[in-house]
Design brief:
Layout: H1 13-23, E1 32-34, H2 36-42, E2 46-50, H3 60-68, H4 73-77, E3 80-83, H5 87-98, E4 103-107, H6 113-121, E5 125-128, H7 133-147, E6 150-151, H8 158-174, E7 180-184, H9 189-199, E8 206-212, H10 217-224, H11 247-256, E9 259-263, H12 265-278, H13 285-296, E10 304-308, H14 315-325
Parallel strand pairs: 2-10, 3-4, 3-6, 4-5, 7-8, 7-10, 8-9
Antiparallel strand pairs: 1-2
Length: 327
């Protein structure tokens, strides 16, 4: 991507390392495993970063803990609120519970039932509202103003992004010779953090983002040079169904990311099934998008990592997706 030398990112390698100091004892240092099946399919060495094994079943808890640990006690006591399709809410609810705070999560009206049940188990107050990410964020803004809650943005906050970047620190510790990394993109918080962590230590590593073809807010923002709201969002990868990114994420992507790959829902579901059947790993479609992007990239070469960002899915849901796409 084009580099903007005049812009200085508020997310730095130092801030990511500081986040790791704050949250390291609270998270799982997830495995990075060489997959024989994925390597054979791709024709290169493919490693899987298993964030589906993270607390709450997804990477989001890293950023949530990083942000919540930056709050004062008074800010936590006001109640912590966020907008989410599910996984960010789970991370925030977990982090809030660890510090005795109340969590309020604004979910889409058509939220993943599994994620709703997991949120209820964590004691979160659920507010169903709308179906788009920006509508949920507007509801958070309204409730924050009305009740004085402390908000945690799902992807565009420096402390949160630094928490997500701790994945990049772990990957480079485990695989210093990393040549490529593939990261799913929803709003862009995950790739923002990982890209800074990786590129600031190993600039020659290629960082690729992966988006669903009909939920490609980052690719459109890059093309237009500014955040560009999509007219509609449609994908089986509910965790990647962001209608628009933010300027912070776009600026980091433009500076650090080498390319964005767009994949179809069919390719995402094929990768989901491949991971389950060939790699014995249960990953939700949002998490499998990275591997779909890796498989589809004609320029892939060297040792590559696919970040499997979450695993909050049931076999029944995968089968329903399969029927709907007639695979």
């Amino acid at each position: 991507m084009d580099s903007d030398t005049a812009w200085v990112s508020p997310v730095t390698l130092e801030s990511i390392r500081a986040a790791y100091q704050r949250i390291g004892a609270e998270i799982i240092r997830t495995p990075l495993v060489l997959s024989g099946a994925a390597s054979d399919r791709a024709g290169i060495a493919v490693y899987l970063k298993l964030e589906n094994l993270q607390r709450t079943g997804a990477f989001k808890v890293r950023g949530a803990l990083s942000k919540v640990t930056s709050f004062t006690s008074e800010e936590r006591l006001r109640g912590i609120i966020c907008a989410s399709s599910g996984n960010h809410g789970l991370g925030v609810a977990y982090a809030a519970a660890r510090f005795g705070a109340r969590a309020i999560v604004v979910l889409p009206e058509n939220a993943n039932p599994l994620k709703v049940r997991l949120l209820e188990k964590l004691g979160a107050q659920i507010v169903p509202f709308g179906t788009t990410s920006d509508a949920r964020q507007e509801k958070v803004n309204q409730l924050t103003e009305q009740y004085g809650y402390t908000p945690v943005h799902p992807f565009s906050d420096p402390a949160l992004i630094a928490g997500q970047g701790t994945i990049g620190l772990e990957i480079l510790e485990d695989l210093p010779e990393l040549e490529e990394i593939y990261v799913p993109i929803g709003g862009g918080g995950l790739i923002s953090g990982i890209a800074v962590a990786v590129k600031e230590q190993r600039p020659q590593t290629r960082v690729y983002g992966v988006e669903p073809e009909y939920s490609n807010a980052m690719a459109e923002a890059v093309k237009h040079g500014c955040p560009f709201p999509l007219p509609r969002v449609k994908t089986i990868a509910d965790g990647l169904a962001a209608r628009v990114t933010e300027e912070l994420n776009l600026s980091i992507v433009r500076q650090y990311v080498d390319g964005i790959l767009e994949v179809s829902d069919r390719m995402i579901l094929e990768a989901t099934q491949f991971l389950l059947e060939q790699c014995k790993v249960l990953v939700e479609p949002s998490g499998a998008a990275s591997l779909a992007g890796l498989f589809s990239n004609p320029k892939k070469r060297g040792k590559a990592v696919a970040v499997l960002s979450g695993g909050n899915v049931t076999l029944q849901q995968i089968e329903e997706h399969r029927r709907n796409l007639e695979l």
